[in-house]
Amino acid sequence: MSQRVEDVIQLLCHLSQMKGMKAAVKHYARGALLGIPTALLGGLLGGPVGMAVGGAFGGLLGSRMSSGPFKPVPQILWQLPPAEKKKLYNKAIVFLSHLDWTDIGELTALVMGNMYLQENLTAVLINYLSKELGAMIQ
Asked: Taking the alpha carbons of 127, 16, 25, 95 in that order, is the dihedral positive or negative?
């Protein structure tokens, strides 16, 4: 992966760490798949009432499982596959394309000295996490 991509990901990690951002990536399919078998099992054991109770129990249990624990955003970013890092880079570079940097230290200094860039990069990151990964941001 390109050094510029790594620099931008590292910058976003630094920015999110400064803001104390955490996110929980949801696992919708796992939660949904739990509701169906519990309704079926309830129906087999208790008829129509058992199906209703089993479906309600499965739905509650599934919704509880559908969101993972909150993790620091830098941890989530470093675990992204290279293609996703590149996608995030492409969104962030829109605001960084006018900057000329040689290393991560210089890039970080340039961005931390500019509130406009910080706000826009934070918005890019929040948008990416919520829309692309389906994460809840804290």
From this structure: positive
Q: Give the number of residues written for the chain.
A: 138
DSSP symbol at 120:
H
Nearest of 128, 127, 134, 137 to residue 28 by alpha carbon = 134
For residue range 38-83, list pLDDT tens digits in order. 767 767 777 877 777 777 777 776 666 555 678 899 999 999 999 9
CB-based contact 54:42 (threshold 8 Å):
yes
Ranges of H-type helices in 3-103: 3-18, 28-65, 73-78, 82-96
Query: pLDDT higher for 7 or 50?
Result: 7
Q: What is the pLDDT of residue 10?
A: 96
Burial (CB < 10 A; 0-12, 13-18, 19+), residue 84, is middle
Among 56, 131, 116, 128, CA closest to 90: 128
E strand or H helix that includes residue 71: strand 71-72
